[in-house]
Amino acid sequence: MENKKTKIAIIGGGTGGIMVAARLKKIKANVDITLIEPSDTHYYQPAWTLVRAGAYNMKKTAKPMSDLIPKGITWVKDYVNGFKPQENKITTAQNGDISYDFLVVSPGLVMDTSQIEGLTEALGHGVVCSNYTDPEHTWEVIQKFKGGHAVFTQPSTPIKCGGAPQKIAYLAADYFRMHNTASRTKVTFATPGSVIFGVKPIADRLIKVVERYNIDFKPFYAPVKIDGPNQKITFKHIGPKENLCIINEDGSSDNVANPDEVVMNYDMLHIAPPQTAPKFIRESELVNSAGWLDVNINTLQHTKFPNIFGLGDVAALPTAKTGAAIRKQVPVLIANILHLIKNNTLDKKIYDGYSSCPLVTGYGKMILAEFNYKNEFTPDPKLKQILVFDSSKEDWRLWMLKKYGLPYLYWNKMMKGVEV
Length: 420
Description:
By secondary structure, the protein is an alpha/beta fold. The protein is built from ten helices and 23 strands. The protein has two domains: about 5-110 and about 275-350 and about 405-415, FAD/NAD(P)-binding domain (3-Layer(bba) Sandwich); about 110-275, FAD/NAD(P)-binding domain.
């Protein structure tokens, strides 16, 4: 009985699922792993930031799922339909029930364009684009833009890589400068948030970037409706009424439909769609009141079912949903599962909310925001090895790290089960 392998089922072949599987194989844990993932292709989505600015090849962001799932792991190419946690089983669309001793839930999140009126019809057509759905289309829109009002915005829901909507605003503004369209262009970045970024040292730097590009920053603006044919977007102003800035710096004014709504015309619109947990997660008993996988924020163990763990974008963790966060979550999750198997108690390792947001602020420039649950700026000391001593400042070395270093780290270390 001592040699009996513990059955671990992993839902999701994204960053979290592959990292957990690869790491368990790397350390030769005495486990039998089944990974459930319907997709044929795995994408390195952080590089889409550069794809949409013409600075990275989209083809290089994709690899066959079969090349990444480690040998010796059972890959069930199927969709998960639901959970039977009391029976230690999950249900699938075509393969029936799959049993487990421990379950790792990491299916990522999904786009839900229906949450903004008109977005489903408008997205991907004409000048309405999104790096979240088609970064190559975004690049086409930027190249064809000849002036006017370029609007960049994001929804009120949590989103993966929360800095992405402003990164593309900076890259686009820089592109407009380089191609002599900045003088006849107004760039607006509208966000439901109250600040440009939640970590103060980073926010202080980004405000200077906003000022450099003369971007009209609109906090408390939540998009609620898009009129594609007439190129209009409606925002609900969700902040204090005294902050409802109607008169812009250039003397123009937003069209106020009612005291709580603002309508803007646009000649280009980039939007991050609203995002939610997948339906089979939302409709299960594993979620919190907001519809995200309900796990302990430090141990990643489910709050109700002790043999279920979750990580990545689907988890109800009060930090940014990034691959960098997953990189720090995986060791904690694995340590806790293995400790439970051996000692029936959790390991002492905890996840402190670490996440990272590589904020590209222009071609050849980047700021690297690293932070924890307390929104404390926590730069990696290893950055000094590439002569970056203050990653809150724009640096060309950080751009090189983003373009070359991080993709290498991802494909050759993280996806291979190497703890980094």
